[in-house]
């Protein structure tokens, strides 16, 4: 799998995957004496759905935070779109074209769904504070354009009925969908999803799966996701990285990963006698 | 029918569309809410879009007499597809979009559709699921491109691509299309609609241009509909009413058809559009009233008092003012004030501010619900009709509106009552035939054109208004020969907001019993106010206090039934509250939410036995079908209660 064509590959269902979008080289991350991630390397390719899985405490969320630039690893390099990335502020990450959702929903409860999604476009707005406050000149035209983009996303995720509802009043599954909408509103190159199905029922999970696939298909967005639900991961992703105790123990297509003895041990346990 | 010179040329829907494009070219014909705003198409844009689709169909080889199946929610492009199909000499067949694949397969097979036009991926999947059994299907077109990229497109197209192809090919096939449009006559089939079928398989009702156009003309004139009117198209496209309102009358009068964003935004969209001509089945009005009442329970003291005070005035004088009857000046003033403080804002919230004509039909509507809306000054009326009549059989003229009648025969319709009490009619809207079913056609429509409705009713002395009692075949006899009219009793019970659905049994038995479905919204709210905790429908339905409340309702109904000696035998002696809602997906209701008695009686035979054997409790398992077609089962132990009945003399002595 590591001997892959640099130009990309074609998946079993006929989607074309492009060249490397992001590459992690020998990443190690420590919190004091705790080694969260030890010497992990892998890449994410354009148009791919890439999953990071592992048991509790394996370091998945830390890895996602390294990808998003929130954590800066002590060792190793992060390459994104051909450039080596240094320490960055969150807004710089957003401008680079990386958006994310959170394991614990992080929306503005008092604001409407529409306004929440609009915040996703903040980094794309160019008019100044004054003209925005006065609703004057460029700001008006710009807001109309942004609203149109947001409405397309609302339509796409089928949340029209709750457009004007304050987020605080929504059930959990819908909040997750709104969070995805906000991330999409930033028109990211790379979308990071931290446990998108956590706490959902079967129907909500099915919906979310469909939306993730549709986002990838429709917008060509590269998606990296962390997920507990093995069934979901195996159905959804093109390639899977498996972590355990901060180390990478497997990397490849779902089938390859499924038959990897280290992965089986990590998930099912291994007898010690 | 009298025909003027201009009318003579208007003998098909495409001809009407051409007239509207010429006459009202720049006025809005269709609107749809999309991306948060109302997009609109003028009559000339509509004519252009329809023609492009029709040209595209010709390039794909649509033949005269083909059937084009249409499946999806109300969207302008699907209405245009119907007219485009007519232009090509084909017959549109709209299907219920919430039908499961099996039901869909039957209809698609029966009509032999070669082209299927659907709304989105979900419908495409359903058609593909059954396509291997339906060799006739040659082409699937869809509106929404989302998620469709990976599908095999050798026999599939986006509708937008079909119309683009049609536009490109206009020089090649334009003449052929004009020829086919010119061929359309008054007696050419206009549409084929499948009746939901309370019993047996659905039947394809063929309605001709004459049926649709003459009916639309008569009914539009009856209510003085104008081209400036607005309607909201939200009822299933497969239902004859929607076809008459959104195609027939819209084409005849040139009014604007507005399509909601999706099913769950209907109430918001209704408010934004504020239709002037509106149709809704009773359950929509019931639902809205229940909502208003629930919200008023939670309102502040002052608002609640104002609401109660002015609603009392409205109920007293509102209907009279609406009917133009004399009302004292003081009452008029009070009503004005009420309109300012309560009725106006309330109507605005409901989206009924601009309604000139509103209709309800399909089921009996509770007198209280009906009066509530009329009291607010909404001209809500009743009509009686069916698919085979192109809707209209009877309707209520302005000023003669009552909740217990269905009005006088519509213009051009003759109605008579058969010897057994069954209602027969003959009209220009009477259907041509049941497709591929001459036996049923013959048994429904006689040689002189009289059609049996299957409903029992009578004309009221003096007013000439028709009253419907029940389905003719459901009116039966009890074991001791007394009259059994289940629907009469069911409707009385369903008028309570807490009760959603009722099925009464008793034909050939010595007493009547009932299954009851509670209304989760109303009872749930009541439970909340009374601190009753519940986690599911099933648990709430089995709650002792809910049983007590329902028992009160049943006993109250028993007392009101007992007043009528002819029907006093229909009092309910024992009842139970079902552990699940009756559902069309389980085959217990039709798609238009009518109770299918035979199926229910068969499915719940254990429960019926328990009702008649004097048990207090019964354990049961019921198979349910989920929305995605999977099956599961619900287990429950149901309580059976006895209700007090008003006994007649002999029984009183015995007890």
TrEMBL record, chain A:
Name of one Pfam family that matches: BCA_ABC_TP_C
CDD domains: ABC_Mj1267_LivG_branched
Domain of life: Bacteria
Domain ABC transporter, chain residue ranges per copy: 22-270
Keyword Transport: yes
SMART domains registered for this protein in UniProt: AAA
Protein name: ABC transporter ATP-binding protein
Source species taxonomy: Bacteria, Pseudomonadati, Pseudomonadota, Alphaproteobacteria, Rhodobacterales
Matching SUPFAM superfamilies: P-loop containing nucleoside triphosphate hydrolases (SSF52540)
Keyword entries, A-Z: ATP-binding, Nucleotide-binding, Transport
GO molecular function, one term: ATP binding
Automatic annotation (TrEMBL), chain B:
Domain AMP-dependent synthetase/ligase intervals: 18-435
Signal peptide coordinates: none
Top-level taxon in the UniProt lineage: Bacteria
Matches recorded under InterPro entries: AMP-binding_CS, AMP-dep_synth/lig_dom, ANL_N_sf
Keywords: Fatty acid metabolism, Ligase, Lipid metabolism
Entries under Pfam families matching the protein: AMP-binding (PF00501), AMP-binding_C_3 (PF23562)
Molecular function via GO: ligase activity
Gene3D superfamilies attached to this UniProt entry: N-terminal domain of ligase-like
Name of the protein this chain belongs to: Long-chain fatty acid--CoA ligase
Annotated source species: Albidovulum marisflavi
């Amino acid at each position: 799998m590591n001997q892959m064509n640099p130009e990309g590959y074609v998946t079993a269902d006929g989607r074309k995957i492009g060249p490397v979008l992001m590459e992690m080289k020998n990443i190690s991350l420590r919190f004091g004496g705790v080694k969260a991630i030890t010497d992990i390397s892998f890449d994410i390719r354009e148009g791919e759905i890439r999953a990071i899985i592992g048991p509790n405490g394996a370091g998945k969320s830390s890895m996602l935070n390294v990808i998003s630039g929130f954590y800066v690893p002590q060792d190793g390099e992060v390459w994104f779109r051909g450039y080596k990335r240094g320490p960055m502020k969150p807004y710089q990450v957003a401008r680079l074209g990386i958006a994310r959702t959170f394991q614990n929903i992080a929306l503005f409860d008092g604001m409407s769904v529409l306004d929440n999604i609009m915040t996703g476009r903040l980094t794309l707005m160019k008019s100044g504070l004054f003209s925005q406050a006065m609703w004057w000149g460029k700001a008006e035209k710009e807001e109309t354009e942004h609203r149109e983009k947001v409405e397309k996303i609302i339509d796409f995720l089928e949340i029209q009925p709750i457009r004007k509802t304050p987020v605080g009043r929504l059930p959990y599954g819908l909040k997750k969908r709104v969070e995805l909408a906000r991330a999409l509103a930033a028109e990211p190159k790379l979308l990071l999803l931290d446990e998108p199905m956590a706490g959902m029922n079967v129907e909500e999970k099915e919906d979310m799966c469909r939306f993730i696939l549709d986002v990838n298909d429709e917008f060509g967005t590269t998606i990296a996701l962390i997920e507990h639900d093995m069934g979901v991961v195996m159905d959804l992703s093109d390639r899977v990285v498996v972590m355990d105790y901060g180390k990478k123990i497997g990397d490849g297509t779902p089938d390859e990963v499924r038959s990897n003895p280290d992965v089986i041990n990590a998930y099912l346990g291994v007898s010690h006698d | 029918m009298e025909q003027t010179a201009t009318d003579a040329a208007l003998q098909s829907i495409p001809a009407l569309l051409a007239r509207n494009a010429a006459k009202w070219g720049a006025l809005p014909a269709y609107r749809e809410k999309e991306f948060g705003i109302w997009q609109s198409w003028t009559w000339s844009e509509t004519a252009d879009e329809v023609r492009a689709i029709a040209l595209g169909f010709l390039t794909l080889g649509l033949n005269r007499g083909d059937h084009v199946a249409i499946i999806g929610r109300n969207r302008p492009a699907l209405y245009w597809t119907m007219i485009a199909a007519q232009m090509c000499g084909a017959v549109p067949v709209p299907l219920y979009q919430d039908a499961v694949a099996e039901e869909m397969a039957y209809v698609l097979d029966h009509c032999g559709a070669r082209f299927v036009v659907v709304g989105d991926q979900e419908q495409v999947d359903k058609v593909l699921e059954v396509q291997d059994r339906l060799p006739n299907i040659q082409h699937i077109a869809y509106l929404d491109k989302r998620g469709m990229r990976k599908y095999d497109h050798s026999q599939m197209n986006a509708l937008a691509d079909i119309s683009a192809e049609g536009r490109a090919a206009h020089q090649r096939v334009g003449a052929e299309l004009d020829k086919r449009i010119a061929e359309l006559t008054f007696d050419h089939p206009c549409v084929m609609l499948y009746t939901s079928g309370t019993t047996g398989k659905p039947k394809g009702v063929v309605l001709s241009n004459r049926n649709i156009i003459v009916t639309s003309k008569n009914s539009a004139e009856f209510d003085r509909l104008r081209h400036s009117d607005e309607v909201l198209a939200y009822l299933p496209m497969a239902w004859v009413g929607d076809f008459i309102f959104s195609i027939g009358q819209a084409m005849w009068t040139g009014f604007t058809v507005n399509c909601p964003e999706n099913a769950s935004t209907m109430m918001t969209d209704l408010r934004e559009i504020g239709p002037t001509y509106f149709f809704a089945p009773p359950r929509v009005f019931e639902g809205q009233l229940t909502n208003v009442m629930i919200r008023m329970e939670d309102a502040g003291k002052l608002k609640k008092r104002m609401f109660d005070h002015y609603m009392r005035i409205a109920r007293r004088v509102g209907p009279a003012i609406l009917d133009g009857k004399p009302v004292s000046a003081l009452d008029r003033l009070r009503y004005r004030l009420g309109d300012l403080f309560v009725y106006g804002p309330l109507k605005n919230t409901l989206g009924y501010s601009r309604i000139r004509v509103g209709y309800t039909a399909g089921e009996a509507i509770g007198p209280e619900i009906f009066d509530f809306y009329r009291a607010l000054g909404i001209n809500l009326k009743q009509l009686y009709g069916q698919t085979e009549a192109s809707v209209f059989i009877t309707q209520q003229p302005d000023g003669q509106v009552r909740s217990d009648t269905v009005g006088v025969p519509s213009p051009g319709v003759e109605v008579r009552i058969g010897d057994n009490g069954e209602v027969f009619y003959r009209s220009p809207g009477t259907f041509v035939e049941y497709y591929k079913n001459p036996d049923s056609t013959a048994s429904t429509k006689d040689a002189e054109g009289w059609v049996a409705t299957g409903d029992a009713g009578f004309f009221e002395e003096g007013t000439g208004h028709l009253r419907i009692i029940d389905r003719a075949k459901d009116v039966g006899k009890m074991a001791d020969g007394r009259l059994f009219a289940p629907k009469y009793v069911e409707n009385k019970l369903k008028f309570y907001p807490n009760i959603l659905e009722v099925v009464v049994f008793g034909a050939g038995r010595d007493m009547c019993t009932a299954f009851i479905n509670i209304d989760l919204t109303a009872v749930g709210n009541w439970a909340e106010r009374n601190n009753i905790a519940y986690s599911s429908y099933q648990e709430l339905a089995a709650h002792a206090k809910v049983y007590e409340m329902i028992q009160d309702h049943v006993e109250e109904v028993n007392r009101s039934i007992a007043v009528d000696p002819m029907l006093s035998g229909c009092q309910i002696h024992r009842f139970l509250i079902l552990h699940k809602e009756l559902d069309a997906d389980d085959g217990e209701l039709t798609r238009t939410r009518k109770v299918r008695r035979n199926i229910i009686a068969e499915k719940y035979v254990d429960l019926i036995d328990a009702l008649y054997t004097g048990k207090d409790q019964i354990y049961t398992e019921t198979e349910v079908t989920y929305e995605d077609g999977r099956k599961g089962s619900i287990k429950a132990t149901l309580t059976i209660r006895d209700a007090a009945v008003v006994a007649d003399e002999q029984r009183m002595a015995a007890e």
